[in-house]
Amino acid sequence: MRKLTYYVGMSIDGFIAAPDGAFDFYPVSESFLKDFLIGEYPDCLPTHVRQHLGVDGLENKHFDTMLQGRATYDAALELGITSPYKHLRQYVVSRSIDKSIDPDVEVISGDVAAKVRELKQEDGLGIYLAGGANLAAQLLEEIDELIVKVYPVVTGSGIPVFSAEFGVVDFTLESTRTFDNGTVVLMYSKRR
């Protein structure tokens, strides 16, 4: 069975983006870029970033499918990009749009948890949950793994990692990796 992985970056105080959705303030060192983002998780880089870095031909290592919320997708649309992850099968979860503006992107407007359970039954690599906080909260019970990039900044406010009612879901720390710029990558698996 395939896993749903919430692969996300956050500030030390638990925010994935500024209140306006910006996330360009996270420091990325050369070693973090080469060793982790390109070396380990090139699948999670948008296609236009992969092209810019000259790594568009890299094979996907972990994921062949991705889910994103409407606000996350809107960030690509603002750049004029209608298919931000051409190297993955793409889904946008939205109740406000009913059909895709790009044939490479499928819109999920119904029961997203049921769709994730269906996707998990298929053969292939994992499913990358790109965000945002509301979608992650809706799928918390379906998330099998968390990969959290904790950047060495405090923002004070912003969009949290999860926007959910209080509840406890247990995860087990599987690995920790620290980079020269102070970024720490934590990998958790859901405790069963």
Automatic annotation (TrEMBL):
Upper taxonomic lineage: Bacteria, Bacillati, Actinomycetota, Actinomycetes, Kitasatosporales
Matches recorded under SUPFAM superfamilies: Dihydrofolate reductase-like
Domain Bacterial bifunctional deaminase-reductase C-terminal residue range list: 3-185
Protein name in UniProt: Dihydrofolate reductase family protein
